[in-house]
C-alpha cells in the first residue's frame, strides 16, 4: 500500500528536480549566450570615429552582424533571437526551448521557453 501511494509523489518530485534543473540551466545558458554575443558586437568599433574623436562609437551594422553571427555558432536549441545595435549599445535577446524529461508525460505540461536579454557598450581603458 505504501508503495502504491508514494510512488507517484516521488516521481513528481523527481520530475520537478530534473526538469527544474533543466529550466535553470536553460536560463543561465541563454543569459551566457546573449552576454557573449553582445560583447562580440560591442567590439565592432568605428575606427575612423575613434581616431577622430578619441571616443569609441559602434558601427551598428557590423556590431549587429557580429552579435548574430556569434549566436549562429552555438549548437544549442535556439528557437528565437534578436540583435540590435546603435552607435552606443548592442542588445541581444536569446530564447531557448526546454523539453521536460519527466513532467512531459503530464498532460498540458509540454515544452517551455526561457528568454534572456543582454546589452553591452564599448568603453576605452581610461573610462571608469
Which secondary structure elements does this structure contain, and how are they paired or packed?
Elements: H1 2-42, H2 47-53, H3 60-72, E1 78-85, E2 90-98, E3 112-120
Antiparallel strand pairs: 1-2, 2-3
Total count of helical runs of at least 4 residues? 3
Helix/strand order, N-terminal first:
HHHEEE
Q: Kindly state the number of beta strands.
A: 3
Which strands sit side by side, in order, in the main sheet? 1-2-3
Radius of gyration: 21 Å
Per the principal axes of the C-alpha atoms, what is the gross shape? rod-shaped
Strand-residue fraction?
15-25%
Largest beta-sheet characterization: 3 strands, antiparallel
What is the residue-averaged pLDDT? 89
Low-confidence blocks of residues: none
Assembly status: single chain
Structural class: alpha+beta
> Termini, distance in Å?
66 Å
Helix amount, in percent? 40-55%
Q: Domains counted in the coordinates: how many?
A: 1
InterPro entries: Tad_N (IPR028087)
Pfam families: Tad
Domain Putative Flp pilus-assembly TadG-like N-terminal: 3-43
Protein name: Pilus assembly protein
Amino acid at each position: 500500500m505504501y508503495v502504491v501511494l508514494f510512488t507517484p509523489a516521488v516521481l513528481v518530485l523527481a520530475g520537478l528536480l530534473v526538469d527544474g534543473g533543466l529550466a535553470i540551466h536553460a536560463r543561465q545558458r541563454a543569459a551566457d549566450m546573449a552576454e557573449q554575443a553582445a560583447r562580440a558586437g560591442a567590439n565592432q568599433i568605428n575606427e575612423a570615429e575613434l581616431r577622430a574623436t578619441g571616443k569609441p562609437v559602434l558601427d551598428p551594422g557590423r556590431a549587429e552582424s557580429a552579435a548574430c553571427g556569434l549566436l549562429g555558432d552555438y549548437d544549442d536549441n535556439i528557437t528565437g533571437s534578436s540583435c540590435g545595435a546603435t552607435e552606443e549599445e548592442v542588445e541581444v535577446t536569446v530564447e531557448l526551448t526546454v523539453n521536460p524529461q519527466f513532467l512531459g508525460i503530464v498532460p498540458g505540461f509540454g515544452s517551455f521557453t526561457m528568454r534572456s536579454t543582454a546589452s553591452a557598450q564599448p568603453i576605452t581603458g581610461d573610462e571608469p
